[in-house]
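Request:
You are asked to prepare a plain-text protein record giving the amino acid sequence and the backbone structure tokens, at your earliest convenience.
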Amino acid sequence: MTITIGVHASNPSLYHLYHLTRHGFAQQELEPLGESVAFHPYSNGVRTGELLSRGVIDFGGTGSTPPVTAQAAGHDLVYTAVSAPRPEHGALLVPEDSPLRTAADLKGRTVHLAIGSWQTHLIAKALDDAGLSYADDITAERSTENSEQLLRTGAVAAWVAQGPQLAAARRTGGLRTLIRTGDVITDRSVFFTRRDLAEQRPEIIDALTRALRRADNWAAAHPRDAARIASADLGGTVEDWGSALSALPWRIEGVGDAFLAEQQEAADIFHRTGFIERPVTVADAVARKAGSPAEAG
């Protein structure tokens, strides 16, 4: 059997696992189980649930929002692991001279963000905490390569930046942070798979988690090399990538009650604001133990 791992640039752990195939981290973990590994690159992490359900990939990872929207779309996924919190991974920026001071001041404004990513979770919760609605109180527009310029010229009120784009914007100056990610959400990387694989072959999930940890350990120990890989492949300067990658925890953790509660809060906000059409019970996306009533039924 070949285990296909989905990989896209927005998930740093999977991205570096893919680019470190020469070190064989994934293969070394799967070979003792009689399995081989393949990678399936794609550009939009929002598609991860769909790709899992179609069998295009067997394992994937995103930020906090895509697994919630995947559940809402009826995809039967199982959470397998999460990163440690990433409080400095991104931020909502405004011009230095902007009158906006709090999330409440966003009412009636246009905000650029990667809609459907963890950035939707950030903005939706920040607004909810301020008594506002993501659906009704702002105009959310999808970020483009011109978002920073539009922000600087006043065409949009705020922009969620992350990674090297955030580092470059801060280096240029003239912008300030209106909302720090870590003040609103934990912003974890989230890893998940199909239920059949999680429940029938848990040893494979354990092996993949070990491979992710090995890749994270490499990136943490070789920050300059990790930045060079990303810069050469994705653009941006090595220095900006170095700043972005150094802000990440490079630590993979188990799926615990605190994480599930965070995801449930996000799911409830998304449903209340109409971002997802039906309610989601996040705890359903946990592997059932062998012999449980759900399996026996």
In short: Residues 199 and 288 are 7 Å apart (CA to CA). The radius of gyration is 19 Å. Confidence is low (pLDDT under 50) at residues 291-297.
